[in-house]
Amino acid sequence: MGALFQEQFADLFAHQLTPVVSDPSTLSTLAQAAASFPTPYPIHLKVETGMGRLGLTQEELAGVIGSHRFPNSLQLEGLMTHLADTDGPATDATQQQLAQFNEAIKIVTSGGFRVPLIHAANSGGTVRFPEAHFSLVRPGLMLYGYHTLPSSVVVPDLKPVLSLRTCIAQLRIVQPGRSVSYNRTFTAKRPTRIAILPIGYADGLSRRLSNRGYVLIRGQRAPIAGLVCMDMVMVDVTHLSGASVGDEAVIIGRQGEEQITANDIAEWTGTISYEVLCSIGPRIPRQYHSS
Q1: Rounded to the nearest 5°, which phi and psi values hold at 97?
Q2: Confidence class of residue 290 from pLDDT cuts 50, 70 and 90?
Q3: Is residue 201 part of a domain?
């Protein structure tokens, strides 16, 4: 659903992927590349209605549809837009976008097209704007059990489903006056037991958590000590009796009665939960569990 480049066409066709086309020139080059196929290749068109990002303008859409310039080698399977402010306090901007999108739908249907898949709603739109459901919705953040909707909106009972875990790789005692990690931003004021965890900002653990974030070990919060490194982070476990090498450390998730959510990390780092979740790096192994 993002940008589409000519260099991607071969892989697109090889894997029978359905692209979203947002630009008239891309539509033309894709049509030429698909001309040799025995049947029209399915695509979705994206319309710009107020996000200020990818998408055909209403004029461009009318030019493609109204003048019968839509290529014969392509099949218009879907029409979409993206809503910019479904989690804002007001609703007028979203309503204006939906009005423009409905005009785009009229342009397409008036041109003789019957589009089976029409979609606009992201997570916020799915919850807050039933008129944006059309034939498909595209929840993203909500799939992980989070939302960014204002408190005035009644939200479904969402439960965070993602956890990020590692374990203690080493333990050491740092004496008073000795420092931990780069640039000596943490100096021990007492004999301090430090646990080293093999996860860092290369894995998506934000460097902005340095000296301000927490992890869960043995069901309690342990503060991050010093700067988060590329591949490691140190935490103060002085208050945790019995902490041992190999103990589980929870970055995001629940342990015992305690929990750290992506919202907590977003608050500590000055961002949103979506960025926290998207930042988890590809070298972190993924494990999927059925409920």
Answers
A1: -60, -45
A2: confident
A3: yes
pTM value is 0.89
Q: Of the candidates 221, 164, 230, which has an alpha carbon nearest to the alpha carbon of residue 195?
A: 221
Owner of token pair 């089976």: 116
Rounded CA-CA distance 226/236 in Å is 10
The amino acid occupying position 164 is: L
The mean pLDDT of 256-269, rounded to a whole number, is 97
81 touches 56 (CB < 8 A): no
Q: Do 235 and 224 meet the contact criterion of CB atoms below 8 Å apart?
A: yes
Which residues are CB-contacts of 288 (< 8 A; sequence separation ≥ 6)?
none
Q: What is the CATH classification number for the domain harbouring 210? A: 2.40.37.10
Q: Give phi and psi for 59, each to the nearest 5.
A: -65, -45
What residue numbers bound the domain in which 174 lies? 164-278
Q: Please, are residues 261 and 158 in contact by the beta-carbon 8 Å criterion?
A: no
pLDDT tens track for 193-240 = 999 999 999 999 999 999 999 999 999 999 999 999 999 999 999 999
> Partners of 214 in the beta sheet?
223
Where does 206-261 have alpha helices with state H? none
Calculated CA dihedral for residues 87, 93, 98, 100, nearest 10 degrees: -150
Q: What percent of the chain has pLDDT over 70?
A: 100
| CATH number of the domain enclosing 29 | 3.20.20.10
User: Coil, helix or strand for 189?
Assistant: coil
For the stretch 176-201, pLDDT in tens is 999 999 999 999 999 999 999 999 99
Q: Is 80 exceeded by the pLDDT of residue 68?
A: no
d(CA 83, CA 107): 19
Task: Determine whether 270 is exposed, middle or buried from the number of CB atoms within 10 Å of its CB (0-12, 13-18, 19+).
Answer: exposed
